[in-house]
Design goal:
Elements lengths: L2 H19 L11 H11 L4 H14 L3 H6 L2 H8 L6 H16 L8 H4 L7 H12 L8 H10 L9 H14 L5 H14 L18 H4 L16 E12 L3 E2 L2 E2 L9 E2 L2 E4 L5 H6 L1 H7 L5 E4 L5 E4 L3 E12 L7 E2 L10 H12 L1
Parallel strand pairs: 1-8
Antiparallel strand pairs: 1-5, 2-9, 3-4, 6-8, 7-8
Helix pairs in contact: 1-11, 2-3, 2-8, 8-11, 9-11
Family: Belongs to the Nth/MutY family.
Catalytic activity: Hydrolyzes free adenine bases from 7,8-dihydro-8-oxoguanine:adenine mismatched double-stranded DNA, leaving an apurinic site
Cofactor: [4Fe-4S] cluster
Length: about 350
């Protein structure tokens, strides 16, 4: 194989395909690094069709990095609500303030400086540097791993230390230094739409004559991934306070996956627990000591909420209680607070009951 010829042909074929088949996406109509950064952070672990609405929402509310920097964290988290992986939003906000306060509002313009932003890794820094500043830094995301593993018939696990290094070196060798931004977008789009995880369109693929996985009947086997991390089960019991004068309370979460989001008072247990265990728990006693309350389970079965590394099984216990100075949040104001999808889904059901 004449590798240099293969490299030139590979990039040229991908770019030709991309220019004819690319989706009309709003962040492809700009080279403004702030907008590209915004789109890349939103699209991490988010489908394009879901991320689009959030992208428009953020651009509308925060048209410049200065506006994002000056916003409250609560407003940023509220706009992010439903996207998950909330550390992305917190890092986005932190980095916006860093750009404004430390860099005079000037977005960093090299890979080495972009990757210093909190929440920005190799992939995002490479995408921004190549698309906005034409720096020849190759992107490697899930789509790129899949295209390269199949085309070059590579069995190295993509989530191993060796694999991450091997695929980055290969992607860097393949990039067209004169057209790096378009090349990067082309290979990502190709993976998303042609070389798909399931049922790729091999028959009409412009690279099918030279794809080694296709020649060796290994398309379905590639890319290779090492065993996933063990899933942890957690059991949440939320105390939904409903006073006679239509008040409740929310608590700001101080750690974990939903840091700085709001939720009802929580009792977490190692396994499912019943009403008796709830009433005897110190969290329950702290809130309802000496109050005459009634308790009722809202959901008929435990509600599963599946995240990448953990499954959360939840019960919502509705606690009806007399008016108390402890509980002073009007139910009508509850939608102003950023909450997890789990809480948001409950609130929608609770209102309709």
């Amino acid at each position: 194989m004449h590798f240099n010829v293969t490299i030139m042909k590979f990039s040229k074929t991908l770019v030709q395909w991309y220019l004819q088949n690319k989706r009309d996406l709003p962040w492809r109509k700009t080279q403004n690094p702030y907008y590209i950064w915004l789109s890349e952070i939103i699209l991490q672990q988010t489908r394009v069709d879901q991320g689009m609405a959030y992208y428009f929402k953020f651009v509308e509310h925060f048209s410049t990095v200065e506006k994002l920097a000056s916003a409250s964290e609560e407003k940023v988290l509220k706009l992010w609500q439903g996207l998950g992986y909330y550390s992305r939003a917190r890092n986005l906000h932190f980095s916006a303030k860093y750009i404004v306060n430390e860099l005079n509002g000037d977005f960093p313009d090299t890979y080495n400086n972009i990757i210093k932003l909190k929440g920005v890794g190799d992939y995002t820094a490479s995408a921004i540097a190549s698309i906005c500043f034409n720096e020849a830094t190759a992107v490697v995301d899930g789509n790129v791993y899949r295209v390269l593993a199949r085309y070059f018939n590579i069995n190295t696990p993509i989530n191993s230390t060796k694999g991450i290094k091997e695929f980055k070196i290969l992607a860097q060798e393949l990039i067209d230094p004169k057209n790096s931004g378009t090349h990067n977008q082309a290979i990502m789009e190709f993976g998303a739409r042609m070389c798909k995880p399931q049922n790729p369109d091999c028959e009409i693929c412009p690279l099918n004559a030279s794809c080694l996985a296709l020649a060796n009947n290994k398309v379905k086997e590639l890319p290779v991934k090492e065993n996933k991390i063990k899933i942890r089960n957690r059991y949440f019991n939320y105390l939904v306070i409903q006073t006679e004068d239509d008040k409740t309370t929310l608590v700001k979460r101080e750690k974990g996956i939903w840091l700085n989001l709001y939720e009802f008072p929580l009792i977490e247990s190692l396994q499912p627990i019943d009403e008796k265990a709830i009433i005897e728990h110190e969290v329950f006693k702290e809130f309802f000591n000496k109050l005459n309350v009634s308790i009722q389970l809202f959901n008929s079965s435990m509600l599963p909420h599946k995240l990448s590394h953990q499954h959360i099984f939840t019960n919502f216990w509705v606690i009806k209680t007399p008016a108390s100075s402890k509980f002073n949040l009007n139910w009508s104001e509850i939608n102003n607070f950023p909450v997890s999808t789990l809480i948001d889904n409950f609130l929608k059901q609770y209102k309709t009951n």
